[in-house]
Every structure is written in structure tokens, then in C-alpha cells.
Design goal:
- The structure is a single chain.
- The chain is an alpha/beta fold and 226 residues long.
- It has two domains: 165 residues, Formyl transferase, N-terminal domain (Rossmann fold, 3-Layer(aba) Sandwich), CATH 3.40.50.170; 45 residues, no CATH class.
- Helix content is 34%, strand content 21%.
- The chain has a six-stranded mixed β-sheet with strand order 2-1-3-4-6-7, with helices on both faces. It has a two-stranded parallel ribbon with strand order 5-8.
- Helix 3 links the parallel strand 3 and strand 4.
- Helix 1 packs parallel to helix 5 and helix 4 packs antiparallel against helix 7.
Length: 226
């Protein structure tokens, strides 16, 4: 009987990683894509997976699941930095130039488990380009972990340095507003970073105009005076 692996993810970029992994390992594994917390609960009961990957997952995973099964999460930040919600947007808005795809063993705490793989990538350019980099790093990292699993090798786990940890909350749509006073408070690059961090599929940056109408800004560029 082939080992069973659950792949939990519903975002477009996460499903692209799943499609690659499924094509790569379909002869060696039984892979199942799970798109919601409700589906996860039902599937675990029926399949009892050997390994579970969480990629682009928004729901808190119950402690009974992480204690009973080997669960590995993909987090788009150089953990232990940028733990918590909306890590990609926060990094871009903060002006970070480089990030990392981190794969770590999940435990009862949020984003605190030991790291098994971490690969850096650039945060330059539009969000769609950044997602493509995350997809490529995710493919390589998850493939490597699965190959080690199939070969019966122990996956090296490196504890996170809690002294270097930073935490962020999940952003809400109201935080996408660019206010008139922001143009005096922030320079062009800072506002540009906010706009590109909030490109689709996230709640786009917007300006409130006359009669409470909203102007959404999906793309911008900056030029420095010579």
C-alpha cells in the first residue's frame, strides 16, 4: 500500500504547488487535496494520512491533529521573523527586499515549530512575480521532504530562535486605505510598497474620494528625480 499524504491548501498558488507534487509523486503516493477546515476533519478520519502539508492555509489547526500526525507548514517568511498573519504583505509594506519560504514542523503554537527547510527569494517586483518565486521554492522544498520521507531518512529539525521572533496580526480590508495625510507622512517607495503588497488576490489599496466613493489602485511605479 502506498503512503498517504494530505495537501491542505486552497489559494491559487498553493494549488499550483500541489499539482506539481501530484504529478511528481503520483506513482509512489496517494495524494489528496484538502481545501477547507471541514474537509480536513472528514478526510483525516477516513484516510489517517502518513504526512500532512499545510500551504497557504488560513485556519488554526486543532492541537489533536498536530499532536497525532506529522504536519508540515509552508510559511512565506524567514521564520522566526514575521510569525502570524499576512506575513507576505507585512514584509513588503515594511520595505523588506528578501524573504524566505520556510517549511516547519507544526505544534500547538502558531509558527513556532522547528524548521526543516528554508530557502530565500526576492521580494522585488509585482505580487504575481513574488508568488511565482514562492511556488518554485515550495515545489523544491516539499519535493525534498517527500523524497527523504520515502527513503526513510530522518528529517533534520532546527529549533527556532525565539529571541529573533517578530509577530504580526492578519490584516483587514480597512487597512488597505491610503489616506491623504499618508502622502506627506510616507515617501513614494513606501506607498508603492503598500500598493503592490495589496495587489490581487488581496484587498487592493484604495483612496476614499468625494461622496465616499473609493478609487482602487492595483498597480503603481516610482521615479526618482534626477
Amino acid at each position: 500500500m502506498k503512503p498517504t499524504i494530505l495537501f491542505c491548501g486552497y489559494r491559487e498558488w498553493a494549488v499550483k504547488i500541489y499539482d506539481f507534487i501530484n504529478d511528481e509523486f503520483k506513482e509512489k503516493l496517494d495524494l489528496k487535496l484538502v481545501r477547507s477546515a471541514e474537509e480536513l476533519k472528514e478526510t483525516i478520519i477516513s484516510l489517517k494520512p502518513d504526512l500532512i502539508f499545510f500551504v497557504g492555509w488560513s485556519w488554526i489547526v486543532e492541537k489533536e491533529v498536530v499532536n497525532k500526525f506529522k504536519c508540515i507548514c509552508l510559511h512565506p517568511s524567514p521564520l522566526p521573523k514575521y510569525r502570524g498573519g499576512s506575513p507576505l504583505q507585512h514584509q513588503i509594506i515594511d520595505g523588506e527586499k528578501e524573504s524566505a519560504v520556510t517549511l516547519f514542523i507544526m505544534d500547538e503554537n502558531v509558527d513556532k515549530g522547528p524548521i526543516v527547510r528554508q530557502e530565500s527569494f526576492s521580494l522585488e517586483g509585482d505580487l504575481k512575480d513574488i508568488f511565482e518565486r514562492i511556488i518554485e521554492k515550495g515545489k523544491l522544498g516539499i519535493s525534498s521532504i517527500i523524497n527523504s520521507f520515502l527513503d526513510g531518512k530522518n528529517i533534520e529539525e532546527v529549533p527556532q530562535d525565539k529571541n529573533k521572533a517578530t509577530y504580526y496580526k492578519r490584516r483587514n480590508p480597512e487597512q488597505s486605505e491610503i489616506k491623504p495625510e499618508d502622502f506627506n507622512k510616507y515617501d513614494a517607495e513606501e506607498i508603492y510598497n503598500k500598493i503592490r503588497a495589496l495587489q490581487d488576490p488581496y484587498p487592493n489599496a484604495f483612496v476614499v474620494c468625494k461622496d465616499n466613493t473609493k478609487l482602487y489602485i492595483q498597480k503603481a511605479k516610482i521615479e526618482k528625480e534626477k
